[in-house]
Amino acid sequence: MDNTSSIERKKTRQILVGDVPVGGNSPITVQSMTTTKTSNVDATLQQIYSLAAAGADIVRCTCNDYEAAEGLAQIVPRSPVPIVADVHNQYKMALAAIASGVDCLRLNPGNIRKPAHIKAVAEAAGEKSVPIRIGVNGGSLHPELYEKHGGKVTPEAMVESALTELSYFDEVGFEQVKISVKASNVSLMVEAYRQLSMATDYPLHLGVTEAGPPPTGLIKSTAGIASLLLEGIGDTIRYSLTADPVQEAKAGRQLLEALGLRERKNIDLIACPSCGRAEIDVYAVASQAQTAFENKQIPLQIAVMGCVVNGPGEARDADLGIAAGNKRGHLFVKGQNVAVVKEDEMVETLVQWAEFITENGFEAALARADMEKAQKEAEKDRKKLLAIQGEDANEDGSRVNLIREI
Ligand code: SF4
Predict the structure, then answer these.
(1) Cα of 183 to ligand 1 centre, how many Å?
(2) Of all atoms in ligand 1, which is nearest to the CA of residue 307?
(3) Ligand 1 centroid vs 272 CA: distance in angstroms?
(4) Whose CA is nearest to atom 3 of ligand 1?
């Protein structure tokens, strides 16, 4: 299924984080952050591999002390994706991170405040061609800006913080910059990014900070990030969840795929909401299917439908689907019935056909099917169900009649 987006992206400059381009016409990237101690090299590398497998293009690790910087020196050459060092309070940590060989730095202007220190870091980064993210955070805004903007965090104050920091980099001719203006308040964050996007053409890193645990954290992050992406704003994204970071990477990847901003790598599982016609426990089968496909890279839209009466029609645009009826599963590919299986083999059959299609293509899948027989069997079960349930299984017709009688 074609999931290409028609979103017109705002033109930004392009920088390179390791070998991953960010900004310009490059694909929007997914980022996440490790939760291990960076000095624990093996544990951190293990998490980086899990994050990369879940869809992260770039991973950030904290560089909060010299042990962490030394850990980075061992992690970077063994990492499957570029590594960003997160530096907060000490500019010397930024210098140590650059020396460790990281692919990018993240600096918080609210915490590293002396222009001389910022310039020293920019110079060292420039020498090694290490890009820097200016990471403004609503919660740690410079006190002077906070006061200047009426004692509160406003989009204007956050943008001013980013632009002031940017001017220090400009002074030393350092242009390998990307910027974020994150806040935990979704509206504030969205407005800050909108204003920033008008004020600069540096690539933007999107995120709702401290979004919290799922599902609330997922909802807040999606609300903020997706709103901006739909406006064409944003070059790289991170979900900040209070959860296993693998969930962040998966969510980021899934959002980009759902918006058609990245090629589909994983399945898009759709399922009917179930109703009076359902022949199976749709929730249970859909959840079994979700688990069965979880670690498979299958770029298809797959439907689990509760009944053969309406399922194949309602999901005719899916690449592959299955609908229940008369204790059997009716499999369909691109809206055409291709096979009938026992009800308890529905998920297993979906997986087999999905793997076959991914490997051999749709034509080969349709060619091996006895479509005439599958269509006949589906029609038989459809009629049987209609005979048992009637045309009005959801009583919508009777409700309409009641309305008309009022
Ligand atoms: S009509 Fe069938 S496919 Fe549609 S919601 Fe009901 S059970 Fe699901």
Answers:
(1) 41
(2) 2
(3) 6
(4) 311
Tell me how far the alpha carbon of residue 333 lies from the centroid of ligand 1, in angstroms.
Answer: 18
What would the 3-class secondary structure string for 297-362 be?
CCCCEEEEECCCCCHHHHCCCCCEEEEEECCEEEEEECCEEEEEEEHHHHHHHHHHHHHHHHHHCH
Separation CA 369–CA 350 (nearest Å):
14
Residues 300, 238 within the same domain: no
pLDDT in tens, 8-36: 999 999 999 999 999 999 999 999 999 99
Give the domain extent around 165: 14-258
Which of 272, 308, 332 for a ligand 1 pocket mutation test, highest count of atoms within 8 Å of Cβ? 272
- 291 and 232 housed in the same domain: no
Separation in Å, CA 84 to CA 20, 75, 105, 282, 314: 12, 11, 5, 43, 45
CA of 223 to the centre of ligand 1 (A): 29
Confidence at residue 3, expressed as pLDDT on a 0 to 100 scale: 64
Classify residue 80: in a domain, yes or no: yes
What CATH number does the domain containing 79 carry?
3.20.20.20
